[in-house]
């Protein structure tokens, strides 16, 4: 499917690119995603300005006459429905998913429950409250899920606070690390196989999946440092998967995206199980990275959509929940 890129940038009005914020992913948003989007929009002729909600009141968006916002924030406070709710109150259209879909997708455990309600495949998991992390309880998790286990905070992104546990002796430290970032800890069955990601553009039945990206990290270590600050991770797009399998994955991702009520854009992360090529959904990102390393621009480029045109189109889709 092709995007309608016949967009008048001047008709979009004065635009705020929301960047920075106060989450654990502030640095990536402030120094990479946000400036990249800002430069791309200006290149396309948009009257775009940087706006850091951690340093300025969102009320200034109204008083300074901003017509719409491109949300280039990541993590809590920017991707979880809170900024979206504030913009709804201010009446300023914004990019990406609305309040409810943003809040659900930011919570990996709730996301899993929604997907399972429609029988979508996701790894088995155990959730632990951070105020009840007794050694006796923690040590039973590998008995329930097997080893390895992936331990992470369910409300963080970019692999912050996440660990792969290969032995019982590592469980307590991994759980305590995740608990530093969240009130709950997600312990997830580790799916042995290839890591994939697949972006989606649009809304409802008009939404469509972009090409799948295959991620090849050293020893499977796709952590925060390797995601943003090294070149050791390799990406295949086109993925090299069998075309029928790629189409199956894209169809699954579209179902997952629509079930959560996402709009505008998103990116699902998956594991492809080695022994039977079965895909498993890990999470849905509703404000994906837009850095030089980022996967949505890479996939869009494989579909013939440039970075600047992608940013312009996403901005053109900005809207409010309450206008529906």
Automatic annotation (TrEMBL):
The keyword Nucleotide-binding applies. It is found in: Cytoplasm. One of its GO terms (cellular component) is cytosol. SUPFAM superfamilies: Glutathione synthetase ATP-binding domain-like, PreATP-grasp domain. Gene3D superfamilies: 3.40.50.20, ATP-grasp fold, A domain, ATP-grasp fold, B domain. Transmembrane segments: none annotated. The active site is at 25, 158, 294. Cell wall formation. This is D-alanine--D-alanine ligase. It comes from Roseateles asaccharophilus. The lineage of its organism: Bacteria, Pseudomonadati, Pseudomonadota, Betaproteobacteria, Burkholderiales.
């Amino acid at each position: 499917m092709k995007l309608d890129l016949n967009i008048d940038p001047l008709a979009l009005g004065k635009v705020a690119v929301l960047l920075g914020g106060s989450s654990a992913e502030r640095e990536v948003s402030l120094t990479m995603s946000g400036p990249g989007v800002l430069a791309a929009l200006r290149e396309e002729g948009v009257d775009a300005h940087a706006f850091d909600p951690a340093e300025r009141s969102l009320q200034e968006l109204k008083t300074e006459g901003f017509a719409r916002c491109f949300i280039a924030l990541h993590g809590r406070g920017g991707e979880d429905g809170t900024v979206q709710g504030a913009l709804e109150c201010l009446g300023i259209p914004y990019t990406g998913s609305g309040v409810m879909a943003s809040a659900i997708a930011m919570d990996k455990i709730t996301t899993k429950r929604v997907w399972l309600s429609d029988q979508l495949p996701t790894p088995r998991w155990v959730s632990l409250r951070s105020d009840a992390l007794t050694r006796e309880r923690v040590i039973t998790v590998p008995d329930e899920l097997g080893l390895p286990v992936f331990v992470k905070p369910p409300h963080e992104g970019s692999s912050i606070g996440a660990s792969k546990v290969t032995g019982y002796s590592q469980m307590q430290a991994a759980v305590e690390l995740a608990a530093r970032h969240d009130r709950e800890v997600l312990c997830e069955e580790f799916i042995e196989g290839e890591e994939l990601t697949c972006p989606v553009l649009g809304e409802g039945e008009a939404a469509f999946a972009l090409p799948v990206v295959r991620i090849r990290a050293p020893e499977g270590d796709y952590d925060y440092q390797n995601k943003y600050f090294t070149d050791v991770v390799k990406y295949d797009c086109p993925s090299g998967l069998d075309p029928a399998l790629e189409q199956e994955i894209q169809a699954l991702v579209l179902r997952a995206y629509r079930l959560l009520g996402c709009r505008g854009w998103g990116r699902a992360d998956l594991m492809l199980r080695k022994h039977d090529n079965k895909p498993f959904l890990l999470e849905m990102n509703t404000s994906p990275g837009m850095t030089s390393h980022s996967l949505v621009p890479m996939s869009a480029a494989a579909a013939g959509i440039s970075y600047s045109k992608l940013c312009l189109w996403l901005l053109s889709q900005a809207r409010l929940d309450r206008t529906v």
